């Protein structure tokens, strides 16, 4: 089966990267993987992937290079740093970046990569969290040439339920910023709601089912409210650190564009306060603790 499928390479085996790679392996794609910590590489090697020691090795044979990294700096390092992808990259390859990165930096890196080695860039950040990565139901918002995105569509169909071209390179990252603004503000309001319901003597575990199907309903409500009501914070499905990073990107982008984003600015401050109390690597469901411990 794999003889007719393009060879893939994947850098970044975190909460999202591992389940995404597993779906690609299950679909029969030849897959090389790299991660800074070797344990994740070995995990996927045992499941059929080829583990490599440095990112440059990913570009040796792959037709499509995939990244799912922590932030813009990590993307830049893996692509352009010592032992980076650029050392072996060649014309005809495509790089698709699932990371949440800064739009302007994404455009700069895409232009540099194409100028140096002829590899074109598609930014394709995702939404849906680890459940979406595991089930292949991610929403993928892409920026890049239309032909490049269509070339990727068969592969990305294994990872997501929907792939939308938002425009040229960088447009996917702008859309992801918008997504994260909604998600982060929603998470904070849900935390307020759960804490308020508890203080008012209402069974907070009933809030999500009671509001299901109404105008206040949302996926974050149905996921986070029950976890908050039960103080159930494990396993961690996403991190406060990630939401804070994305909110900071939103505030930066709004300044660059001269746009007003006061709610996201406040959300960033509240998220930073929560992170400073030891929650940076914890699940956003822990946000409810900020309101439970607030001084009346």
Automatic annotation (TrEMBL):
Ranges where the 6-phosphogluconate dehydrogenase NADP-binding domain occurs: 8-167
InterPro entries, per the entry: 6-PGluconate_DH-like_C_sf, 6PGD_dom2, 6PGDH_NADP-bd, HIBADH-like_NADP-bd, HIBADH-related, NAD(P)-bd_dom_sf
Residues at the catalytic site: 176
3-hydroxyisobutyrate dehydrogenase-like NAD-binding domain sequence ranges: 170-289
UniProt-recorded name of the protein: 2-hydroxy-3-oxopropionate reductase
Domain of life: Bacteria
One GO MF term attached to the UniProt entry: 2-hydroxy-3-oxopropionate reductase activity
E.C. no: 1.1.1.60
Protein keywords: NAD, Oxidoreductase
